[in-house]
Amino acid sequence: MTTDRFLLCGTHAAETEPVRLIAGPLSAEFVNGNLRTIRHGGTEVLRAIAYIVRDRDWGTYEPALTNLTIDQGADAFSVSYAASCAGPGGSRLAFHATIKGSSDGQLVFDVNALPESDFETNRCGFCILHPIAGLAGSQVTVEHSDGSVVATKLPDLIDPWQPFRDLRAITHEVRPGVTAECRMEGDVFEMEDQRNWSDASYKTYVRPLALPWPYVLPAGETNRQTISLRIASDDNTPATTEASGAIRVTLGEPGPALPDVGVIIYPDDVETALANLPTLSALGPQQLLLHYDPTGGHGLDTLRAFARLAAAYPARTTLECVVACCGDLDAELAEVADMVRRANLRLDAIAVSPSVDRQSTPPGSAWPPCPPLEDVYAAARRAFPDIRLGGGMFSYFTELNRKRVPAGPLDFITHCTCPIVHAADDLSVMQSLEALPFITRSARTIFGDKPYRIGPSTIAMRQNPYGGATKDNPRGERIAMANRDPRQNGQFAAAWTIGYAARVAPAGLEMLTLSGFTGPFGVLAASGEPVAEGSFRPVFQTIKGLCELAGFKHVTAKTSDETRVLALAGRSSSGETVVWLTNLTASDVAVDLSEFGRGHLVMAPYAIARIG
């Protein structure tokens, strides 16, 4: 069992098993002091109610729980516990929590926090997550702290800023005849559209981002917050039932071509790639994305190394070029172009982005000094007149949505995503796939039919736009904002990668980059990993399969339960149809293959399967 867990998730550590709490039609999962998957009659009402404490880099503390008591009755449940967070310099925050739920649809989560010493934090309080499936664009009622009530809608396209501020309560329809009111007390709450970060939720949180952070909770001053959920239903409202039986797969009509597949190459990866050219050829990426950052010490030697690889492996090449913007833009980019020529580096495209744009500018914050992007792109075009020019953000869709680049001078738009910005548990990472169609549709609404690239997007975070650095992860844990993630070594990453490609395929991307060649984001294990250096990670086969599909016409592929199984289908010019299936869960799943003239397939946890 331990070995199986490592093969699945790249770690022997098991996640904490949730405790199922039930009170009539109301149910919730209790995990590590918080609630997730709150349902009524089988329908998800809230994705989570969590009391969160974050450090100055937006890292999340993992409080130690003590005196945990769980009482489960016939028509009610209750939970109580104490917890504490240890901060830098010996600072400590203690809090006591109670949770009560009843069969009449009432749920109350109450926390009293008491800093034992001055405690620095970027956020301390409740986060409430509303799901996006079935709710995006729907009617809600919002109550503000002054008692005013407004009928409005949740955003359909992704809102770059906070859709609702100064919240006291929000009410939505769970299903016909059933409404849920979520009331927040004890602080000033506002909502952000977490789909910006590929989270599958709208998040209501404390405190407003326009207020200064980090801030200090004074020693000895109690802070109390309470979340109350009240679900009202008609007596005759039927409850939903969970789907049973095998999951069905159906194919539709062909659409846009499936994208080229890229592999990100960092300077430290070049020698490994050159030493493993047969493996790189077997993988078969159509594009190499070469990361070049003069602010990180990259220069002529870096470009010469890239040139050796580009000469040895016949793929299209794009230079992902960070622009320092510290002086004359023409001089800076002309110097890069001169070094590219001196290095004899063959390039098909260059993507440029100011270095400061790798850091996020939150709501209420001042934008950092930066030349107009029109000037940056014009200088890049003058320096590289004969190759394609791209722009956007080397960080995430969040930053692109908030700083919408002038796309007119560009040949393509690009951005990345990362699923562990806010949470790193297995369920949240897989649920992040739900947000990707909203990201691509929002990007298409902003930029039209401009050629569109995504990546590198991997489970691990390559840079932290929201703090000083990514989190080191030497013990291979599941932690948010980590620069390496254990699941890259397991079947989990392979399943997530196919799911990612399936979710973005309808957008007609030009290029999709979901891996590196080696290192923490790679298809080959590097030194210091818990698997042999140079060995194939399970994601190798997944990326190889996507490379083979590049240029095929995307065929619409639906499953009867896309929270558990996703399908990606492509059709070749000769009419051959290839389908990849991925099990997004940690359980066996039966899949009905009658669409393909076959019987049932039982997919193991996080398994992928190729048909055709």
TrEMBL record:
The record's Pfam families line, in alphabetical order, gives: Apionate_lact_C, Apionate_lact_M, Apionate_lact_N
Q: Which residues form the D-apionate lactonase N-terminal domain?
A: 8-233
Annotated D-apionate lactonase TIM barrel domain residues: 261-551
Q: Which InterPro entries match?
A: ApnL_C, ApnL_M, ApnL_N
Task: Tell me the domain of life.
Answer: Bacteria
Specify the D-apionate lactonase C-terminal domain's residue ranges.
Answer: 563-611
What's this protein's name? Uncharacterized protein
